[in-house]
Structures are given as C-alpha cells and as structure tokens.
Design brief:
The complex is a heterodimer of chains A (331) and B (298). Chain A has helices at residues 47-55, 81-87, 109-118, 125-138, 144-147, 157-169, 187-204, 215-221, 239-244, 249-257, and strands at 5-16, 19-31, 36-40, 63-65, 68-71, 74-75, 92-95, 175-179, 207-212, 224-229, 232-238, 307-311, 314-317. With 331 residues, chain A is α/β, with parallel strands linked by helices. Chain A has a domain at 5-229: Rossmann fold (3-Layer(aba) Sandwich), CATH 3.40.50. In chain A, strands 7-8-9-3-10-11-13-12 form an eight-stranded mixed sheet, sandwiched between helices. In chain A, strands 1, 2, 4, 5 and 6 form a five-stranded antiparallel sheet that branches. In chain A, a hairpin with a 2-residue loop joins strand 10 and strand 11 (232-238). Chain B has helices spanning 17-25, 28-45, 47-50, 88-124, 126-141, 144-155, 159-169, 172-186, 189-196, 201-237, 249-256, 265-292. Chain B has a single domain (31-296), classed as MetI-like (MetI-like fold), CATH 1.10.3720. Chain B is an all-alpha fold and 298 residues long. Chain B is built from twelve helices and no strands. Helix content of chain B is 68%, strand content 0%. The A-B interface holds A 55, 57, 60, 85-90, 93-94, 96-98, 101-108, 110-111, 114-116, 118-120, 125, 128-129, 145-146, 148-151, 153-154, 164, 167-168, 170 and B 1-5, 8-9, 11-13, 15-16, 125-126, 188-190, 192-200, 207-208, 211-212, 214.
Chain lengths: 331, 298
C-alpha cells in the first residue's frame, strides 16, 4: 500500500542563545493508512517538534527542511500557509498533551466542535451540530446534545481529551497525530483513552502517529516503532521485531529500565541509563549516544554512523553488528 | 458561527462569567464604586428631568446665590447660582453628562487604538512588535498637556477636537497591557489547537484570543476613563477643553476661581463631584482587577 505520509531527512533547527539547536536531525519514516507508528523517546529528543513540523505548527523562529515531506501525494515542504491551513483539521488532525489547556475556556465546546467542521466543509449549522453530537456519543460522552452548550471547565480531564479527539475527527481526517495524548491523565483514564483511540482508528482506517515516552503504550498500540534519541531515529522497525530483538544500545537500555515482575527483585535499584542527553547546540559528529553507551568505541565518533539492517524492515544506526534475538542483558 | 447552537442555550451550564459575577457582589469596593458610578450616570442621563432650571439661563439679579445650607439661600436655587446667575445644581447635573460622555468616548476610542496595536504587536512579535513598541515609547515621551495645547491651538477648541486629541494620546496603557496579555495567550495550547483545526490568523485573534483578554480590557478601560475625565477637567480648566457656556466641571472650577476667597463653594462642589466620580471609577476598576485575577491582589 502506498504510504500516506512520507518523511525523509527532516531537520528542525532553532536559533538559541549561543548557536543553533539542531532539535531534529535528519529523521525519516513512512506511515500507511490504518497503521500506527509510535515515535518514542525521552523528553527533549525532538519528538514533539517532529509532530509540529509535520503540521507546520512550529514556532516562528524554528526552521524546517526535509528531502521529502509528503502527505497523500502533496508536497508539504513548499505548501503556502493558506493551503496548509486547509489541510490541517480537515485531512490531517492533531491532539495535544494537555487537554486542560487545549480548549478555549471562553467558547462553548459545541461551538468549538462545529467550528472545526464548518471551517472546512460547507455544511449547515444543524448538520454540523448533529455530527458533533454523534461524535461526542462515539467518544463516550453521555448526554452529548446537552453538553454541547457547556464550557470546557465543566468537563474532567479525561472528558476533555475525548472532546479533543472528537474535534480532531469532525472532518474525518486520514492522519491523526497524537502528541503524548495520555501523559496528563490518570492511569485508568489513560487506558480508556488508548482503547478509544485504537477503536476509532480501526473504524475510520486512520493513520495514527502516536508520540509517547511510555514503552508500555508503544507495546499496546504500535504497528511500527521509531526510537528517537537526540533528534535522530536510532532504531525503527515493526514493533514486534524491535521489542523482540532491540539492536541499538539505547533501545536495549530503555527496555532494560522497565521493571519486570519476577525478574526485578523488590528493593534493588531500578536500571537506568547513566548520563544525560547531550546538548544539540552547534554541530555534532558521530553517534550522539556514545557518551552514555557502555559499548562505545573510537569508531563511534566518525560520521556518518552506519545504518544497519537487523531483519527485513528493522534497521538501526550503530557501529555494532546485529545481535541475535532475545533481550540484551546489561553488560 | 457562534449562533449555530442557539437552540441549546437553554440547557447550558453557568457561563464562566457567573463566578466573576458572584465574586463581584462580595467585593465591597467594587460594589460601592459601581453604586456611585451608577448614581452619577443616572443623574447625568436624567439631567433634563432633574434640573430645576435651564443650565444656560442667566439671571443677573440673582448672581452668586449661596447654597441651601448658608445664609441668604433661595429655595429656587438649592445649590445656589454662579457669577452669571445660572442655577448651579442644573449646571452640575449637565456637567456630569460632559464628564461621563467624554470619559466614555475617550476610553472607547483610545481602547480601539491601543488594543489593535497591542494585540498586533503581541501576536506577531518580531519586527512588527519592535515598530509598535517604538511608537508606544514615542507616545510616552510626549507631554500630554503640551500636545493637547498645540493641537487645540491648531484645530480650534471643540468637544470633537478634545475627544480626538485625548483618544490619540491616552491609548498607551491599553497597548502595553494588551501586548503582554496577547503574548501570554498566544503560547497557550488552545491557540495551537485552534491552528491545528485550520483556523486562520484573523479568526484566532478575534475568536480565540480577544475573548480571553476581556477581563484585562475592562480593567484598563475603567482606569483609562478616570484618567480621561481628569484630563478633560484639567484641559477645560486651562481653557483648552470644553468651551463656555457648556457646563463642564473643570470649566466651572476655572470660572469659580475668581471667587475662591469669599464664595469657595463654587469651586468646592464641582471639585468634590470630580473627586467622587474618579474615585468611584478607580475603586470599581481595582475591584474588577481583584475579581478578574485574584492572584494579583496586593
């Protein structure tokens, strides 16, 4: 199947005091309709900026460039803002991390939902309202018709994320970008929202780009996974393959950090990756993870870091040769 | 588009304004300020009904009649008469119209100018912000009374000139406050979310940002209105503002200054009303600020 979203060599640069912050450094991925790609990485690795770059919602001072950035055959790189605004909310939608602040506090939620549709489609107010009611029911808000007239502060956090999802779905988009959609929610609500997201995706055949730092969410939701570190995708492939045989030392480290019942003894310190994410201000050569990597060698400082294939579409950027399946033990 | 959901209005929950309204009712300064302001507004609006005499009718036989609580008062003139025998109560009532009308007009017009500039600077930032900030700084460097003097000398004194000059001079506080508030608002997640559903920039400014600035706008507007009323009085006192025979409190103080030694009530009454009105508006403005943003309460 042809890819709906294709990204190659995407860069995002931010001018900061003391130089240029290379927040996203040449990443690439493709997403098919009906599939879920999880972009996973720790805070500051550039995953949110990647999402904003796709939607052309980057802060004004940020610069974006890419060798390829296409959505359903449209080249987004040179698309004027007017046509980009026509795509946003219509064929590509986005939901955000914090549902508490993502809704306008002075506008009735019904107005916000109806606006999302009527901005892009010539439909009557009544028809738009009917669709809003139907979608609110679908995302699990009871008494939808009555609640359209309410304001955001009258909804709980979980309900607001449901509202955001309903608003994103008003125009039946083909692509949904979800930036940490459950991070601000309780664990029980997280599970409900994720289930809802998965259901809605199946029903509508959505391509879902899910951004998260939570490997548990990746394991539940992802068809494909891309692990980001310091602005680069260090490992990508089908979720099952990446979880079964992580190849990059960073991915291995991340998976080792998850305590497993039975394997992790109570009272022992939890595993962690030593060190901190390097500063990405200025030029960087070689592998960005080498300072924290227990298997670093002189070749790690050379550019370019080789991209190796573990199996099929499972690839990673590291000087090390592919290791056999089975979780890598910490040396 | 906002009217699209009119049928559901009946089942809507309380507006966010309801909380503000309830808090306002419990704020003594706000209630007192509002009460005095309403009283003076009603008096101004009903001046033709309340005034015992024509405020322009001269009666040279009855010049400088003292008010009711002094010797020599006349029941026909409860607050006495001025140096031309005009009924002082009637002139004070009509003067309230001038003060409130000019204050309101200037607060609205300068609000339009200042809000447009402030929101534009705050939303777009960069070079536009630099230019507008420079304009604000330049405006702050202009001495208001001297510029007003020059403008009136150039165009000639009239109510319209007065309002126009004051509106063109008093927008700075709006611009400064709205710029800061817009900068804060534009980084809020719901603005990005609005862009993510495809809202255009004008739509975001009008529908997403401006309604969220209403609280601060109202607070600035009340304080600005008080300043405009004082400035009108000052300019009228200097002969640059409202021209005789129109009754203005500032002008009445100017006319009464000849009699300050022996008939001080001529200055005292319009002066006291001026203080009362400005105090009421400022108290109301302070109260609104407390209620709108409880965290900034000193």
């Amino acid at each position: 199947m042809a890819a709906l979203l294709e990204v190659e060599d995407l860069h995002v640069r931010l001018p900061v005091a003391g130089g240029t912050l290379h927040a996203v450094r040449g990443i690439g991925f493709a997403l098919q309709p009906g599939r879920t790609l999880c972009l996973v990485g720790e805070s500051g690795c550039g995953k949110s900026l990647t999402a904003l770059a796709l939607m052309a919602l980057l802060p004004r001072r940020a610069a974006r460039d890419a060798a390829r950035l296409s959505f359903a055959g449209t080249d987004l790189r040179s698309l004027p803002e007017r046509r980009m605004a026509a795509l946003r909310g219509d064929r590509m939608a986005m939901i955000f991390q914090d549902p508490m602040t993502s809704l306008n506090p002075t506008m009735r939620v019904g107005t916000q939902l109806v606006e999302a549709l009527r901005r892009h489609r010539r439909v009557s107010a009544a028809a738009a309202r009917d669709r809003a009611v139907a979608l609110l029911e679908r995302v699990g808000i009871a008494g939808a018709a009555a609640r359209l007239g309410q304001y955001p502060h009258q909804f709980s956090g979980g309900q607001r994320q449901r509202l955001m999802l309903a608003m994103a779905l008003m125009c039946e988009p083909q692509l949904l970008v979800a930036d940490e959609p459950t991070t601000a929610l309780d664990v029980t609500i997280q599970a409900q929202i994720l289930r809802l997201l998965a259901e809605v995706q199946r029903e509508l055949g959505l391509a879902l780009l899910l951004i998260t730092h939570d490997l548990g969410i990746v394991a539940r939701m992802a068809d494909e996974v891309a692990v980001m570190y310091a602005g680069e995708i260090v490992e990508r492939g089908p979720a099952a393959a990446v979880f079964a045989a992580p190849q990059h030392p960073y991915t291995q480290g991340l998976l080792n950090c998850i305590p497993a019942p039975g394997r992790t003894l109570p009272g022992t310190p939890l595993a962690a990756i030593a060190g901190v994410v390097p500063s990405l201000v200025g030029d960087w050569r070689g592998c960005a993870f080498r300072a924290r990597c227990s298997r670093a060698r002189p070749a790690c400082a050379d550019d370019p870091v080789p991209t190796r294939t573990a199996a099929g579409r499972h690839s990673y950027r590291c000087v090390l040769s592919p290791a056999p399946a089975g979780r890598e033990a910490a040396p | 588009m906002s009217g699209a959901l009119a049928p559901s209005e009946g089942i809507a929950g309380p507006r966010p304004g309801a909380r503000v309204l309830a808090a306002s009712a419990r704020h003594p300064g706000l209630v007192a300020g509002l009460a005095v302001l309403l009283l003076l507004t009603v008096a101004a609006l009903a001046a033709p009904l309340l005034a015992p005499h024509d405020p322009y009718a001269q009666d040279l036989a009855n010049r400088i009649v003292p008010p009711a609580w002094m010797d020599g008062a006349k029941t026909a003139h409860p607050l006495g008469t001025d140096h031309l025998g005009r009924d002082y109560l009637s002139r004070l009532l009509y003067g309230a119209r001038v003060s409130l009308g000019i204050g309101l007009a200037v607060a609205l017009l300068s609000g339009l100018i200042g809000t447009a500039l402030g929101v534009t600077a705050g939303y777009f930032g960069g070079r536009i912000d630099m230019i507008i900030s420079f304009v604000v700084t330049t405006r702050l460097a202009l001495p208001i009374v001297l510029v007003a003097l020059a403008a009136v000398a150039l165009v000639g004194a009239s109510l319209q000139t007065l309002v126009a000059v004051m509106a063109l001079l008093l927008w700075d506080r709006y611009a400064v406050v709205m710029r800061a508030a817009t900068q804060q608002m534009r980084s809020r997640a719901f603005v990005t979310a609005a862009r993510a559903v495809g809202c255009s920039t004008p739509r975001i400014i009008v529908a997403e940002i401006l309604p969220n600035l209403a609280n601060q706008l109202i607070v600035v507007a009340t304080l600005e209105m008080a300043q405009a009323i004082l400035l009108e009085a000052a300019l009228s006192f200097l002969g640059l503002g409202v021209q005789a025979p129109i009754p203005s409190w500032g002008l009445m103080i100017a006319e009464g200054k000849e009699h300050i030694l022996f008939e001080p009530w001529l200055i005292f009454m319009p002066g006291a009303l001026l203080v009362l009105l400005v105090l009421a508006i400022n108290t109301l403005g302070d109260g609104l600020r407390d209620v709108a943003a409880p965290s900034t309460r000193a």
